[in-house]
Design goal:
Length: 562
């Protein structure tokens, strides 16, 4: 689906390239600079294209398209965004460019429109598309250096907003309020309807019918077969004649199935825990006025995620046959929509979706590390299939990139490590409250652990090994791809982190890792090459923080023989 959406965007962009610029379409040879880009984006977002006749695909009506790397109706190429977008590799990475552009524009436009960034190639030549979503937050004020103004597009020109534009903003605002109110009422009606249905079902199942059901069943048992009653329950209750003798004659299919085929209690509990987490996070505010409110929201996320993590930890630890690995995959995939902004929310902080996705990041680290150390290959494998968002980006590595882009500054105030986000994850999962540490195999926790300034207990060494494995897992779908690999960033990459255990993994990859990654005689050779290639030219997140370490040039060893 992600690929289909990308191809749809590309096809529409190439279609528009064959037409003229218009109110919602702009062509650029290269990046025009922060101020001009901000003015252009705000003007397109403030403009409504009620006709929509220029689009080949109706679903793009009222979307804005800025094509970069085009000229004279042709794709001429634009490989990397310059200046101010980091290293050449960062300036050519779609995710990095999106995050950097968002950071630049949010200081120049209020509120910032919702937009996406795509990198495409046509006949081997690179071009970019900035897709601006239809806005319900008009007007978007262009405010460079404190001189606020509102701009719109008339044809392909940018002009100051006129009286009729402000009237349109007012009408759109009223319409959005009505939709939000209607959406909230529909949601409330749905919840009331579901609650009513559950009450009716409970009333029916726990009323006289249930008593009659068991009395009728037990009366059919002879003295000779009472000792086999537990085994005969399915046979006795699925007989139509037996059901007809019940006091209630109109059992629904749902009632019969629920009585005869109860849910697996572990699956039911897992779904309940996930539902409780969803319900708790759905109550979080979508706007944060200051860092205090943001800190309170993150604290709530960590509090409400903890029971879910402890349940998952126990499941991974004790599910020796890995019967519930696929169930866990489905439950986690269902939670991936936590970061989606509901249609009835018209105003929200850009960091709000990332606060919710932080819960998923904690979960993928927790499950991945425990699956590795408990040798659960199926649980470890399912993590590479998890996706989120409209484009279905993979949890590994993109979920971490998304959360980092929104919360890095906040976590930097709490942790002095070179990677403050991984520092926060380590502290939460291994120290306080330490749900991952609690569920690790006792043999792992009893192993000698070297002292490290950031972790006197030595637990950081174990965390870094687990994060290294997640980094390898993030590369699995990318091995053999034409695109440059994008590894999972983290503490494991930094030269200041302990690396003894990582060296051992490279030299003697454990069986569970060989199975999950499909390693052959070369061991981790291909993965190490992809890791080095994906991080070439990338610096640390703080001055003086460097990628590398004693494990960086370790010679990969073979997998153990069966």
């Amino acid at each position: 689906m992600a690929d289909n959406w990308r191809e749809t965007v590309k096809a529409e962009a190439l279609h528009l390239l064959g037409r003229n610029e218009g109110p919602k379409v702009e062509f650029k040879r290269s990046y025009p600079g922060d101020d001009k880009m901000a003015k252009l984006v705000s003007a397109i977002a403030n403009t409504d294209d009620t006709d929509g006749g220029i689009y080949a695909n109706e679903k793009f009506r009222n979307h804005g398209f800025i094509l970069i790397g085009v000229e004279g109706g042709q794709v001429v190429g634009y490989d990397a965004w310059e200046p101010g977008f980091g290293s050449p590799q960062e300036a050519s990475n779609e995710e990095k460019v999106k995050d950097k552009l968002e950071q630049k524009l949010k200081n120049l436009i209020a509120p910032l429109p919702v937009f996406e960034v795509y990198k495409f190639a046509e006949n081997g030549v690179t071009f970019w598309v900035v897709l601006i979503r239809p806005s319900i937050d008009q007007p978007h004020v262009y405010d460079p250096q404190g001189s606020a103004s509102v701009w719109v597009r008339v044809g392909s020109n940018i002009t100051p907003a006129r009286a009729q534009d402000y009237d349109r903003f007012r009408r759109n605002f009223v319409s959005a309020l009505r939709q939000e109110f209607a959406g909230r009422m529909d949601a409330l009606d749905n919840r009331i309807s579901r609650l009513s249905g559950r009450i009716d079902a409970l009333d029916g199942l726990f009323g006289s019918s249930l008593g009659d059901f068991f009395r009728t069943f037990t009366s059919t048992l002879s003295k000779e077969n009472r000792s086999r009653s537990a085994r005969n329950i399915p046979q006795a209750t699925t007989n139509g004649a037996e059901l007809s003798r019940l006091g209630k004659k109109d059992f629904s299919l749902e009632e019969v199935v629920r009585s005869m085929m109860p849910l697996d209690p572990i699956e039911e509990a897992l779904n309940k825990e996930a539902g409780d987490l969803w319900e708790a996070l759905s109550q979080l505010s979508w706007t944060f006025e200051d860092d205090t409110e943001l800190a309170e929201a993150i604290e709530k996320v960590e509090k409400h995620t903890l029971p879910f993590l402890r349940g998952l930890g126990t499941l991974v630890e004790r599910d020796y046959e890995e019967r519930y690995a696929n169930v866990t995959l489905n439950v986690l995939q269902g939670l991936s929509a936590l970061g989606a902004v509901p249609d009835f929310i018209t105003r929200y902080s850009l960091v709000a979706p990332k606060v919710r996705l932080y819960a998923l990041l904690l979960t993928v680290y927790h499950v991945g590390i425990l699956a590795y150390f408990h040798s659960r290959p199926r649980y470890l494998s399912v993590l590479s299939y998890l996706t989120y968002g409209r484009e279905e980006r993979r949890w590994l590595p993109h979920l971490r990139d998304t959360v980092y882009a929104g919360l890095e500054t906040f976590f930097s105030l709490k942790h002095k490590q070179c990677d403050p986000l991984s520092g926060q994850i380590y502290n939460y999962l291994f120290i306080n409250p330490g749900a991952t540490w609690e569920a690790l195999p006792e043999a792992i926790k009893r192993q000698p652990r070297p002292y490290h300034p950031l972790s006197p207990s030595g637990a950081l060494d174990i965390f870094v090994e687990g994060e290294f494995v997640l980094g390898l897992l993030s590369l699995k779908p990318q091995i053999g791809s034409e695109e440059p690999p994008r590894p999972l960033f983290g503490l494991y990459l930094l030269e200041s982190s302990p690396s003894t255990r990582i060296q051992r993994v490279i030299q003697k990859p454990p069986k569970v890792l060989c199975e999950v990654l499909g390693l052959e005689n070369g061991g981790l050779q291909r993965y190490m090459e992809a890791l080095r290639g994906g991080l070439k030219g990338v610096g640390g997140s703080r001055p003086g923080c460097h990628i590398g370490g004693t494990w960086w040039d370790t010679q990969p060893g073979p997998c153990p023989t069966p």
